[in-house]
Amino acid sequence: MIVARQIGELNRARIDLGGDSLGFGFVPTMGALHAGHLSLVALAKQKSDRVVVSIYVNPTQFGPNEDFARYPRTPEKDLEMLEAAGVDLVWMPRAADMYEPNEMITVDPGPVGNTYEGAIRPGHFRGVLTVVAKLFHQIRPTVAVFGQKDGQQLFLIKKMVRELQFPLDVVSGETLREADGLAKSSRNIFLKRGEREAAPALFQALSHGFELIKRGEREVSVIEQAMQHELKNDEMSIDYLTCVQQSDFSRPEIIEGQGLLIGAVRLGSVRLIDNLIWGDNYSELIDDSTG
Ligand code: AMP
Q1: How far is the CA of 215 from the centre of ligand 1 (A)?
Q2: Residue among 158, 160, 159, 163 at smallest CA distance from 145
Q3: Which pTM does this prediction carry?
Q4: What residues flank ligand 1, with Cβ below 6 Å?
Q5: What are the CA-CA distances from residue 122 to residues 4, 6, 113, 168 (Å)?
Q6: Distance (Å, rounded) from C-alpha 213 to C-alpha 205?
Q7: Sheet of strand 270-278: strand arrangement
Q8: How wide is the angle at C-alpha 287 spanned by C-alphas 84 and 34, nearest 5°?
Q9: What single-letter DSSP state applies at residue 151?
Q10: Residue 34 bears catalytic tag
Q11: For the chain, how big is the Rg over CA atoms in Å?
Q12: Fewer CB within 10 Å, N side or C side of the chain?
C-alpha cells in the first residue's frame, strides 16, 4: 500500500499503479475509520481495479463553533485497517495541497445546501462539495463511493457530478450499524455511557416511520408526529425528523415515489444523523439493515 502525503507523491503513485489505463475506485474519508468505511472500500474494490482512500479532516466543512479541533484522528490505526483491507493507495494531503492562502472559488451546493444539515450547519455543504471536487481532480477516479449514512451529502455529490459533468460514477454503500441499530460513526466515541444507551432511539424512530409507510401511511405530517413521539427522550433534542423525496430532497405532503426518512438529534455533545430509504424496499425486513 502506498501512502502519499504530497501531491507529487500522489501523481507518481497513480502512474506506478497503472495510470489512466486502469479504473480507480475512490473512497473519501476524514479518518477515524470504522467498519462502515471498510464496507465502502470493499464496494470500491468490487467496482474498480485499484482502490484509493483519502484521509483529510476538511476544515472548510466545519463551522466556527463546530468540532474540527476535537474531531477524532487515528492515522496509524487507519493505515493498518486500510492495509489489511487491501487498499492500493492512501492520500493523506497536507492542508497546503488542498487550499491556497486566499481562495475565492467554491462549489455552490444550490438550494438543497441550505436545508436540513445545511440549515443547522451553514456553509457545510459548500465546504464538502469544494473539497470533494478538488479530490476528484487530484485522484481522477472512475468510481467514487459514498455512504448512504450521509444522505443529503450523497444527494448533493450525485447532483454535482451530474451537473458539473465529472467523468465518474457515484456509488453508494449502505449504512453499517451497531447491533442495537445505531449507525456507526467516528463521533460515537464521544457518547457518554447513558447517551450511548439512548442513541439507538433515532434509528428506532426512523424504523417506526418506515413501518408506517410500509403499512400504507402516506401523510408526511402523520409520519413525522409518530416518529417524534417514538423518539421522545429527555436527553435528546431534535434538529429535524421528516421525510424527503429522492428527486429534489424536498418534503412532500404526501409520499409518492422514492425518498428518505431523515433525522438528526443532539445528545450530549454529539449530533447523530441517520436515514432510511423508502419507496422500493418495503419487502425488506428492517432487521436486514442492522447487519
Ligand atoms: P466520514 O465518516 O465523514 O469520514 O465519512 C466518510 C464516508 O464514510 C462517507 O461517504 C460516509 O457517508 C461514510 N460512512 C460514514 N458512516 C458510515 C456507516 N456507518 N456506514 C457506511 N458508510 C459510512
Answers
A1: 30
A2: 158
A3: 0.95
A4: 29-30, 36-37, 39-40, 146-147, 149-150, 173, 175-176, 183-186
A5: 32, 30, 8, 28
A6: 13
A7: 236-245, 259-267, 270-278
A8: 25
A9: H
A10: no
A11: 19
A12: C
Question: HEC profile for 31-100?
Answer: CCCCHHHHHHHHHHHHHCCEEEEEECCCHHHCCCCCCCCCCCCCHHHHHHHHHHCCCCEEECCCHHHHCC
Please give the Cα distance from 59 to 67 (Å, whole number): 10
> What is the rounded CA–CA span in Å between residue 234 and residue 232?
7
Q: Which three cell numbers stand for residue 17?
A: 499503479
For β-strands 259-267 and 270-278, DSSP reports them as: antiparallel
Q: Please state the rounded mean pLDDT for residues 204-221.
A: 97
Q: 169: number of CA atoms within 13 Å, CB side?
A: 11
| 279 contacts: CB under 8 Å, gap ≥ 6 | 246, 257, 258, 259
In degrees and rounded to multiples of 5, residue 273 shows phi and psi of -130, 150
Rounded Cα gap, residues 273 and 265, in angstroms: 7
Q: What is the pLDDT of residues 226-240, one digit of tens each?
A: 999 999 888 899 999
| Ramachandran bin of 54, using left for φ above 0, alpha for ψ from -120 to 50, beta for the remaining angles | beta
Please give the distance, rounded to the nearest whole angstrom, from the Cα atom of residue 229 to the centre of ligand 1: 28
